[in-house]
Amino acid sequence: MSLMYYSRMKAILNMLPLLVQSTIPATVVSVYASGLEAKLYQDDLSLRNLEHYSYSQARSHMVYLHAVFFEKLAEQNPGKLRLVHIFPGLVQGPSFDGPDNPAWFRFIWKWIVVPVFGRWILVPAEESGQRMLSLASPLYPPGGADKSSNQADAMVGMDGKPGSGAYGLTWNGENNTKPTRYAKMDKSEFSKQVWEHTNKAFEVIKAGQVFTE
After folding, report:
1. Residue 92 confidence (pLDDT)
2. Cα gap 198→6, rounded to integer Å
3. What pLDDT does residue 178 have?
4. Distance of alpha carbon 187 from the chain centroid
5. Nearest residue to 185 (alpha-carbon basis) of 4, 78, 42
6. Confidence tier at 147 by pLDDT (50, 70, 90)
7. pTM score, whole prediction
8. What pLDDT, in 10s, does the model give residues 19-61?
9. What is the Cα Rg of the chain in Å?
C-alpha cells in the first residue's frame, strides 16, 4: 500500500504547486487497478488488522482511496487538474520474458499464452502507450472546466458526472468505476476520512515517526 497508494499521493502533493501553475490543465495518471474495488473496512483503511489483510483486499482499499483522494484534489483545484486512475489490462511487455521469471513460466508465456490467447487477453505495449497519451485529451477535462465546452463528449468521472476531473478507467479509456460500491456509504464523510488519514500519515512520517493507524 505504501508503493501503490501513499507514495503516489505524496508525490502528487509535492508536485502540486508546479502542476497548478501550468497554463494548460495538468494530467496526473496513476496506473493500477481502477474498477477492482470490492470489500471495504472503513474503520481500518490501512489494514492494520492482519485478519483483514490480503493482497486482493489491499488492492480493493487502494482503489477506494484513489477515488476519493483524486476527487478531492480535482475539487480543490478547479480547471487545473485531470486525475486518472487506470487499469491498463494485461500489457504485453518485456518483463514476462525476463530472466527473473522461472523457465517454465517463460516457456508457457512465449509458446502458449501469447500465440494462443494473446489476441483476446493482451494489450500490445505500443497501443497501451498511445492510450496513456490520449488521457491528456479534452475527452477528460479537468474538474471545474469551462462549461461552454462540449461537456456531452466528456468522459463520466468517478462521481458519475461527465467531466468531473477525476476518472477511473479501464484499459481502453472507458469509465470503470463501480457506483454501486459507493452507494451504500456516506461518500462525503468517507472522502473527509481518507483525506485526513492520508495527510496524517504524511505528517507523522515527515516528523520521523512511524504511522500506525
Report:
1. 84
2. 7
3. 87
4. 17
5. 42
6. low
7. 0.89
8. 999 899 999 999 999 999 999 999 999 999 999 999 999 999 9
9. 19
What are the sequence ranges of the domains in the chain? 2-206
Q: Closest by alpha carbon to 63, among 28, 31, 15, 89? A: 31
**Locate cell 461527465: which residue?**
162
Torsion of CA 14, 35, 64, 52, to 10 degrees: -120
Model pLDDT, residue 199: 96
Amino acid, res. 10: K
C-alpha cell of residue 117: 490467447
What's the 3-state SS for the chain? CHHHHHHHHHHHHHHHHHHCCCCCCEEEEEECCCCCCCCCCCCCCCCCCCCCCCHHHHHHHHHHHHHHHHHHHHHHCCCCEEEEEECCCEEECHHHHCCCCCHHHHHHHHHHHHHHHHHHHEEEHHHHHHHHHHHHCCCCCCCCCCCCCCHHHCCECCCCCECCCEEEECCCCCECCCHHHHHCCCHHHHHHHHHHHHHHHHHHHHCCCCCCC
Residue 48 φ then ψ, to 5°:
-70, -30
What are 8's three cell numbers? 503516489
Three cell numbers written together for 193: 476520512
